[in-house]
Design brief:
Elements (H helix, E strand, L loop, with lengths): L7 E4 L2 H9 L4 E4 L5 H8 L5 E6 L4 H10 E9 L21 E4 L7 H13 L9 E6 L3 H9 L5 E5 L1
Parallel strand pairs: 1-2, 3-4, 4-5, 6-7
Helix pairs in contact: 2-3
Length: 160
């Protein structure tokens, strides 16, 4: 049973889940084999997650976040899908004073945030190197985007 402050990572790829553990996730769920909503409910004795960060950008993931968050909890949608695509929810999943926010680029304030992020990286508290799964030249950028689209990479660095 996850303790308060637990971080539950959900993905379809075991390698990405292993990386999530390396970066601080206390529990991982492969959604191809296990229902992440059921896991969140069981792990919190039926209460639901306090905060959910959705980064997959998939209609099923958006729906699942609405089901897995507790009443009064917060969901932050980071993932992106085609703006013309429909996403459906069970109406009851949106009740209970749940808060839903859409965020693009985290609302960063560069003058304040970038020095803090740089220092966290230098101190070893922000793991960035582990997120780089590929490198390419500018001529190979389309291959880098294709690997990302197919879920074979997390971040590819373009080297000039």
């Amino acid at each position: 049973m996850p303790a308060p402050g637990a971080v539950i990572a959900v993905d379809l790829d075991d390698a990405k889940l292993a990386l999530a553990r390396q970066l601080g996730a206390t529990h991982v769920v492969n959604a191809a084999r296990e229902d992440p909503v059921q896991f969140a409910k069981q792990a919190t004795r039926g209460r639901g997650a306090d905060v959910i960060l959705e980064a997959a950008g998939h209609p099923n993931a958006f729906r699942q976040t609405a089901e897995a968050v507790r009443p009064g909890g917060e969901v932050i949608w980071l993932g992106k899908i085609d703006v013309t695509q429909d996403v459906s929810f069970r109406w009851g999943a949106l009740m209970g004073e749940k808060r839903f926010r859409r965020s693009s680029y985290g609302g960063a304030r560069p003058r304040r945030d970038f020095p803090l992020l740089a220092q966290a990286y230098l101190d070893g508290r922000l793991k960035l190197d582990e997120l780089i799964t590929g490198r390419c030249s500018l001529d190979g950028i389309n291959d880098g985007f294709e690997a990302l689209r197919r879920g074979r990479s997390i971040r590819t660095v373009v080297e000039f």
